[in-house]
Amino acid sequence: MLTLTNTFAADVLDGLNRPPSLPKQLQPKYFYDALGSTLFERICCLPEYYPTRTELQILADNACEIARAIGPYADILEFGAGSLTKVGHILEGLQAIGRPLSYTPIDISGKHLFRAARALMATYPDLEICPRVEDYMAIEKLPKPSQHPIGLFFGSTIGNLEPRESVALLRRAATLLRGGGLLIGVDLVKRPDLLHAAYNDQEGLTAQFNINLLRRINRELKGTFDLNAFSHYAYYNPARQRIEMHLVSREDQVAEVCSTSIELREGETIHTESSHKFTVAGFQELAADSGFNPKKVWIDRAQLFSLHWLETAV
Q1: Which CATH homologous superfamily contains domain 62-190+277-311?
Q2: Measured between alpha carbons, how far is 311 from 314 in angstroms, rounded to an integer?
């Protein structure tokens, strides 16, 4: 059975040893070691980075209505839960109509997850909170909620996936959550200058976050990447309606990962993340194609971000 470490190694080697006709790539889920998670929390507080504060404001403004959509006595699973900062609005809204039976936050970063879960347990001592260290993509490994299954998927993490991956993940989620629903955050198409600023912050935190992926490879997979030989590069691709984040090699170089040589030419990039943006109608179509019944949508006044309530078949 593969451990997280050798799965990480296999994914990294697979992404860096692609044929010359394909760009090198790394999966964004591996950003989130302890330092990466901390850096991302700091990014979320930056004035340029609108998604987190906008999604939190939508949750705060609509907590009661969202709670009524979810319904009482739910078994809640949160995919890619992170620091658990957003679920509090859901839990508070549900107190008035019937508190959840259980809450299972799922994240790949174990230390970060358990620290956040302990803090939440202190706030909600009567709630069964069961943190689970798992890749949210591996939905088939998750236990089926026994009562009223509700999924939470915040942060527009769905946008990190390619369209076919999004459909596949949502289809598996619709099966797991049958008889319940999914509350999902979705970033909206907007002016490119707002997107550029969000992913190229003046403090350089996003650049540190991006470079830290190589630092993690060096530490955990005996990598020899020279971190100073790479630059952070993020831009909006309007044809694909997505931000693309890359690490650009500043020189011809050869590094090793798990005793395997990785060659990069000057100017060659490693694609580390895509962040797709959606229209409301476009995402609802995607959700419907994945087996969900799109219902209510909540959007902020500036129309930057959206929360979608999707129901499953009974």
Answers
A1: Vaccinia Virus protein VP39 (3.40.50.150)
A2: 9
Whether pLDDT at 2 is above 60: no
Helix, strand or coil for residue 282? helix
Alpha-helix residue ranges (DSSP H) falling in 17-162: 34-44, 50-61, 63-70, 87-95, 110-123
Residue 1's pLDDT is 31
Amino acid of residue 82: G
∠ CA 146-298-284, rounded to 5°: 75
Rounded to whole angstroms, the Cα distance separating 293 from 272 reads 32
Return the pLDDT at 284: 97
Q: Where along the chain do its domains lie?
A: 32-48+192-276, 62-190+277-311
Give the number of residues written for the chain: 314
Q: What is the pLDDT of residue 143?
A: 78
Q: What are the structure tokens assigned to 15, written together?
A: 């992404």
Q: Which residue has the tokens 């980075």?
A: 49
> How far, in Å, are 223, 251, 283, 291, 295 from residue 261 at the CA level?
10, 16, 41, 43, 50
Contact 33/212 with Cβ under 8 angstroms?
A: yes
Give dist(CA 25, CA 41) in Å, integer. Answer: 24
Q: Are strands 242-249 and 253-257 parallel, antiparallel or unpaired?
A: unpaired
Q: Judge contact between 24 and 264, C-beta under 8 A.
A: yes
Rounded Cα–Cα distance for residues 208 and 281 (Å)? 35
Tokens, residue 226: 């020279």
Percent of the chain with pLDDT over 90: 85
Q: What residues have CB less than 8 Å from 294, skipping those under 6 apart?
A: 284, 287, 288, 308, 309, 310
User: Using one digit for the tens of pLDDT, what is the confidence trace for 173-191?
Assistant: 999 999 999 999 999 999 9
